[in-house]
Amino acid sequence: MALNLFRYASPASFYPAAQRMARWFAVAAAVFAVAGLWVGLIKAPTDATQGDSYRIIFIHVPAAWMSMFIYLVMALWSALALGYNTRLSSMMAQALAPTGALMTFVALVTGAFWGRPTWGTYWAWDARMTSELILLFLYFGVIALRNAIDDPRRADRACAVLTIVGAVNIPIIYFSVKWWNTLHQGATISMTAAPKMASIMLTGLVLMSLAAWAYSIAAALARVTSVIIERERGALWLSQLPEMRRSVAA
Amino acid sequence: MRALTPALALETAAPATGAVAPAFVWALARDMRIAFRSRAELGVQVLFYVIVVTLFPLSTAPERGLLAALGPGVLWVAALLASLLSLPRLFAADFADGTLEQMALSPWSLPAIVSGKIAAHWLTSGVPVVVLAPLLGMQYALDASALSTLTLGLLLGTPILSLLGAIGAALTLGLRGGGALLALLVLPLTVPVLIFGAGAVDAVRAGLGAGANFSLLAAGLLIALVGAPLAAAAAVRIALD
Amino acid sequence: MSEFFSMGGHAYYVWMSYGLTAIALAVEVAMLLARHRRVLREARIAEPDVSITTRSALDPGSLA
């Protein structure tokens, strides 16, 4: 039996599925987060070199991973939107951007707070942090472009093009900055020095990564339900939703 | 009087569907002609570049060592700003009077037409930057090898700035907040160019040679030459729909 | 317990990181919920339009 995925390409069919999935992933995120925080803050021992400040890694690394992963997924949805011309693909890309920007911001801030006690400075222009900063600008650009264009169709396609161009650029940025810093080895501080990790720390990292991943999916799906209602306003299926029948509570 | 629109041009030339060379040459010649009609505007943009570069040593009055260290970075950033300043006029005028739509509808390849426009943009904003760089770089106590590395880097990099900038200009056609939004979109894309360009001078000063930096800039230029007109043409069509 | 809070002297950095992250996530969730409520409220006001599936984005009568 072939699973007819294209049935879900209609915002009307996807909406209830998105709602359900968002709730499940939110629960999963909470469970993973509690487990990960327990391991990371309590069970994992103090690091010999860095002391307790290394515990920031349990937020910093998952956030950084998600920031890049979300952008790639956004680019994928954008490619689908340009290729298949489906509204929902653009809506998913639209819903992912703010969460991606948030993850990037968290990665940058926690990176700064980790850098200060460890290497003596809040900021260093090393490959990873500079690439993260540029990634934040890329997210801001996509969000700003979407807000600047009134016509939703033009906004969808313009943001799709911009996202894809940016996606091509991300590896280039990373390698160019990394390579630039290799030339100036003495002047820069490397934040990539990750010594072999005790397995308990690795467990904490994996748990927090799962939490970040589940959270991002939940947030994006929750946002896409709002986006669907915004953009499909006036549609018959929307007026027949149960939450529409309820009296205005908010 | 405006230059021939593609519709008129097609009646006189043999229509070659999807042809690249005639479209490129036509667009380049047309944009150069239009640019030279407002020579004052071109002059102002070059002057802007000169002023920005001169402003740093004038206003900060730092010692020579610091100036020499800052110089390449300042010159590259100023080159980027000069490019950004003139990008809106790449498509805006044609968009406003409907010529851009004619270009999109014509059987000529839109990426080729866009390439011609980008080439004209580079010739009017990028080339002056490259030509003036050695002169302006002397204010930063840069020696001959540093100046030549800087200039060569700018020669490779300014076309990339025009190419990437064109994508941003096409995406933001007719939008409010245009100039600032354009800068926000283009900035993250052009960071590698600045890094390798300024890095080339640093490499030469460190005795490492700029070969690798230039190779990467050249590779970037090739990729941009192929990809940017396609992306910009797609963005133009999106803006026109 | 105090060892937990002092984080080996790095309390400021660790708790600022965790704290700011928690605040950022809380803000995002709050904004999501507020957006959902607002959007539902506005959608209730709109009249259902049976032709919406055939409507093009260029329709000047579009509600958006």
Q: What would you say this structure looks like, in words?
A:
The complex is a heterotrimer of chains A (250), B (241) and C (64). Helices cover 76% and strands 0% of the residues of chain A. Chain A has 250 residues and is an all-alpha fold. Chain A has one domain. Chain A is globular and about 65 Å long. Chain B is an all-alpha fold. Chain B is built from 10 helices and no strands. Chain B has helices spanning 6-12, 21-37, 39-60, 64-86, 92-96, 99-105, 110-137, 144-171, 178-205, 211-240. The two termini of chain B are 27 Å apart. Chain C has 2 helices and no strands. Chain C has a domain at 2-44. Residues 54-59 of chain C have low confidence and may be disordered. Chain C is mainly α. The A-B interface holds A 134-135, 137-138, 140-141, 144-145, 148-149, 153-154, 157-158, 161-162, 164-166, 168-169, 172-173, 176-177, 179-180, 183-184 and B 167, 171-172, 175-177, 181, 184-185, 187-189, 191-192, 195-196, 199, 202-203, 206, 208, 212, 216, 220, 227, 231, 234-235, 238-239, 241.
Question: Characteristics of this structure?
Answer:
heterotrimer; A: 250 residues; mainly alpha; 8 helices; 76% helix; 0% strand; B: 241 residues
Summarize this entry quickly.
With 250 residues, chain A is an all-alpha fold. Chain A is built from eight helices and no strands. Chain A has one domain (21-43, 52-231).
Topology:
The complex is a heterotrimer of chains A (250), B (241) and C (64).
Chain A: H1 11-43, H2 57-84, H3 87-119, H4 127-148, H5 152-183, H6 199-231, H7 236-239, H8 242-245
Helix pairs in contact in A: 1-6, 2-3, 2-5, 2-6, 3-4, 3-5, 3-6, 4-5
Chain B: H1 6-12, H2 21-37, H3 39-60, H4 64-86, H5 92-96, H6 99-105, H7 110-137, H8 144-171, H9 178-205, H10 211-240
Helix pairs in contact in B: 2-7, 3-4, 3-7, 4-7, 4-8, 4-9, 7-8, 7-10, 8-9, 8-10, 9-10
Chain C: H1 2-6, H2 11-45
Please tally the helical runs of chain B, counting DSSP H or I stretches of 4 or more residues: 10
Task: Tell the overall outline of chain B.
Answer: globular
The major beta sheet of chain A can be summarized as: none
**Helix/strand/pairing category of chain A:** mainly alpha
The main pleated sheet of chain B reads as:
none
Sketch the topology of chain B as an H/E string, one letter per element: HHHHHHHHHH
Alpha plus pi helix count of chain A: 8
Structural class of chain B: mainly alpha
What is the H-and-E element order of chain A? Answer: HHHHHHHH
Proportion in β-strands of chain A: under 5%
Mean pLDDT of chain A: 85
Strand count of chain B: 0
- The low-pLDDT segments of chain B are none
